[in-house]
Amino acid sequence: MSDTPRIAFLASSTEPARNARAAMVSRYGEHAPDQADVLCPLGGDGFMLQTLHRHGHLGRPVFGMKLGTVGFLMNQYHGDDDVHARIARAEPANLRPLEMTALSESGASSSLLAFNDVSLLRQTRQAAHIGIDLNGQERVNELIGDGVLVATPAGSTAYNYSAHGPVLPLGSHTIALTPLAPYRPRRWRGAILKADTEVRFRVLDPYKRPVSVTADSHEIRDVVEVTIRESRDRRVTLLFDPEHNLEDRILSEQFVF
User: Fold this and answer.
1) pLDDT tens-digit profile of 74-101?
2) Angle at Cα 50 formed by Cα 4 and Cα 245, nearest 5°?
3) Most distant pair of Cα atoms in the chain: their distance
4) What is the DSSP annotation of 4-35?
5) What is the per-residue pLDDT across 21-55, written as a single tens digit (0 to 9) for each?
6) What are the helix (H) ranges across 102-219?
7) Which residues, listed in sequence order, are joined to residue 95 by a DSSP beta bridge?
8) SS3 category, 12
9) Degrees (nearest 5) of the Cα angle 104, 221, 190?
């Protein structure tokens, strides 16, 4: 990458983000994502995920700056700093998304990517009944509760963490399997799996106990089966300031009391 990379500044809908983008474009120029060397989303973690879903296929590194509520995947925004210099010394974090395929009651099949997590949730007051298979072998014949999720290391500090799931070190080549408010099995608290494990969820009573699935922010309702595995050929590279890199942030989350 050159010392003066072309940067595509992308802003969330908030006024601070839009104002910051205008200032950045005035200083560094304006480039479309497919013509840029680096993508720079300005917002929170939600907008970062939107950027990865919209433009991840371009293969450009992403240097996000926090101008939103939550910014775990972002760097701090400092309007007076030299963004080119920050990018030049930034440290990369390579993330592989989850590939999710869902089969709905209608027989339709849908495929989505998730950089944080895939979660199954009950749609009504009735608890979900879900069977769990790993690499084709049944491991939980009937999970009863609000649902279940699978999280990447980058996503393990989000919904997974609030559900008392494990925080996974970046680069550990693992994924987290975490139940959501489980009633049965009463003592099961989830598992840490190898990243290449194929996880299949079977909704056992989809008509009486309907279940939806959400891959990051994309929801599919009335599913009967969901298959998840880490992508073998998709990868995104996030860039972080050395003093506040993602690996250290994830490690620090394991020592929050």
Assistant:
1) 999 988 889 999 999 999 999 999 999 9
2) 55
3) 59
4) S--EEEEE-SSHHHHHHHHHHHHHH----GGG
5) 999 999 999 999 999 999 999 999 999 999 999 99
6) 159-162
7) 236
8) coil
9) 90
DSSP summary character for residue 36: -
In whole angstroms, give the CA distance from residue 55 to residue 47. 12
Integer Cα distance of 221 and 112 in angstroms: 14
133 as an active site residue: the answer is: no
The kind and range of the H/E element at 106 are none
Written as one letter, the residue type at 174 is: T
Catalytic residue among 3, 34, 37, 45: 45
Residue 2 has pLDDT above 80, yes or no: no
Cis amide leading into 179 (omega within 30): no
Q: Are 229 and 197 in contact (CB under 8 A)?
A: yes
Residue 228 one-letter amino acid: I
Which domains can be identified in the chain, with CATH numbers? 7-95+235-253 (3.40.50.10330), 98-230 (2.60.200.30)
8 Å CB contact between 40 and 73: no
Do the beta carbons of residue 203 and residue 178 sit within 8 Å? no
Residues 6+ apart with CB under 8 A from 119: 147, 148, 149, 150, 159, 180, 213, 214
Q: How far apart, in Å, are the Cα atoms of 132 and each of 11, 143, 150?
A: 39, 8, 12
User: Token match 């049965």: residue?
Assistant: 184
Q: Are 105 and 206 in contact (CB under 8 A)?
A: yes
